[in-house]
Amino acid sequence: MDAATSVPSPLIALVGNPNCGKTALFNILTGSRQKVANYAGVTVERKEGSLLTPSGLRIRILDLPGAYSLDALTPDEQVTADVLLGRRAGETQPDHVVCVTDATNLRQNLRLVLSLKRLGLPMVVALNMTDIARRKGIVIDADRLAAELGVPVVETVGVKTAGVQALIKVLNATVSPSRGGNAAVWLPLSASDIEHDQAEVRRILQLVGGDRLNGVTFSDRLDALVLHPLLGPLILAVILFLVFQAVFAWAQVPMDEIKLGVAAFGDWLAALLPTSLLKDLLINGILAGVGSVLVFLPQIIILFFFILILEDSGYLPRAAFLLDRVMGSVGLSGRAFIPLLSSFACAIPGIMATRTIQNPRDRLATIMIAPLMTCSARLPVYALIIGAFIPRRTVWAGLQLQGVVLFALYVAGVAGAMAVAFVLKRAGRGSSFQALMLELPAYHWPNLRNLGIGLWQRVEIFMSRVGTIILALMVILWALSSFPAPPPGATGPPIQYSIAGHLGAWLAVLFKPIGFNWQISIALVPGLAAREVAVGALGTVYALSATANDMNGALTPLITQSWSLPTALSLLAWYVFAPQCLSTLATVKRETNSWRYPIMMAAYLFAMAYVGSWITFRVATALTG
Amino acid sequence: MDLAPGASARVVSVSAFDPKTPELGRRLAELGFLPGEAVRIVARGLLARAPIAVRIGTATFALRLFEAACIRVCPEQPLLR
Hints:
The structure holds 2 protein chains of 2 kinds.
Chain A: E1 11-16, H1 22-30, E2 34-38, E3 45-52, E4 58-63, H2 75-85, E5 96-102, H3 106-119, E6 123-128, H4 130-135, H5 142-149, E7 153-155, H6 161-174, H7 191-208, H8 218-226, H9 231-272, H10 277-294, H11 297-313, H12 315-328, H13 337-342, H14 347-353, H15 360-369, H16 379-389, E8 394-396, E9 399-400, H17 401-427, E10 438-439, H18 448-482, H19 499-511, H20 518-524, H21 533-541, H22 551-562, H23 565-577, H24 582-592, H25 596-624
Parallel strand pairs in A: 1-4, 1-5, 5-6, 6-7
Antiparallel strand pairs in A: 2-3, 3-4, 8-9
Helix pairs in contact in A: 3-7, 5-7, 9-10, 9-11, 10-18, 11-18, 14-24, 15-17, 16-22, 16-23, 17-23, 18-24, 19-20, 20-21, 21-22, 23-25, 24-25
Chain B: E1 8-14, H1 22-31, E2 38-44, E3 52-56, E4 59-63, H2 65-68, E5 71-75
Antiparallel strand pairs in B: 1-2, 1-5, 2-3, 3-4
């Protein structure tokens, strides 16, 4: 659309401290016409939108990551500084800067304005959250501020359109079509520069008003409860319990509906189409693949609904504060808690939820260990094996042995995750002291518009990008399990003759030392699509009717006869660690923007699973043999 | 910064606690921890009383102990201990 205009659209960058309401302002300026992606090579989110001014000028708007300073300390600040200086490959230097400031926190925000002035790019200051400031009794003389700073100042209210109109008017008048090549120069600030800027900020604040250090605010009173050493963790536990209750309980009905709907559509297609390879591809390849992805959507929507509310209201940094000491002991950020807890439902929403961790190194560590949290897809496999091999008896005070084993599997996953996180922390370069310096912003009510846009972006990312990779993998997997077709007069199950079958036979050699037979090895191949598929695949390999309603019931006697206890325990250990969910690896690829991390993840999980299963198998054989 | 929750103080100086990480002291300064600014302890964690939530100016930051140790303050209200 923009290509039609001869002059390139000017590019405006929104810059500001974290928590200044920049993204809310961006949402109003651009509406839902936003493109969300990653900056090349880093796990920093890039948001661009556009705006049509009343005079018909199309302006592109870039929402740069929040920064406290142009002397970057974190990779997202580095992106902000590099883009502003025109040093970032693949990014054009902005023609104009809108520095968003929080009117209630000018003491901190104005220092960035002064730094940006040093940079020399054309600038407008958006004095945001003036409504909240007024309620707190802070009235700022915007005209005086503009005169002191020497740049236009526009009052805006992050969640209302009225102030934004004024900003658009100023932009319309001052922004010229793209010229490019702004000579921005930046010299790192010395300690005396910072102190000088602070003196300047104090002087300006004296003149314009707003140099009031408010006493005890509403946020302070709430924090007395929320950050209380004893009450705080209790409140956190209740909130987390409610969130995960909702993720599991509310998602169940829509998830079942999606499963039924996909199955019904498959049946309808099956009745409609003549038997052919295309039909098999459509139903067992594509539809089954799409269905297995779609089914996670309700969990993702519900989880992100809560995460966005917790984030927007200012609670999430408090939760990170409360958990920092615990998570920090293994080198993780307090913010890693929610993604990791979500991974117990499914690693995919969990890994997507790591977007709330600003520090990319912490985020990567969290992504890497998320698959070690026992996801719900592992339960059908655990249920089958535990039901078949672990006797139903009470061990102690009403505790069921089966339940204890299940619990032990969960604990093994968490312990493995802690160990990996610890190793990552040790392997991490740089200082052994990891900075926290986490701002705890004032509480405010979540805004519905921001919530809607945020939720829609998550759904879009999940459906479009992850959907395409997962779908392709599913089709490949279908082809592997279907070709070549069994020779005439074949007696075994068809999958045995396919590429997956041969792969399984080859894997069986690899897996012999950990006690897996060829049937298990073959079932592990389609199990790559989704872990629970392995149960169905075992049924296929053991030549059961694939439509058996009670797969577990039919499989249980078969596997108790043909597997030894060490084999069963070894398979359980395998399932705790093994990288067998292609959707997760595809999500990691998508979120980290690189094949390096999914490959590293698959490799280390495979090694852990192999060693874990080997030890389990050997110890169990020694004990039972 | 060994103050109890609720205690106020004024920043005397900010310097990196570990000479290997000079950027730490500068970042604290950039967040507003500058000589003469008023600080107040909002809350402290349960384990080892860390991290510490500190009000600086109109903003609140959670700091780990080694970060807080970079900031020398002069208490304005009675100290704990």
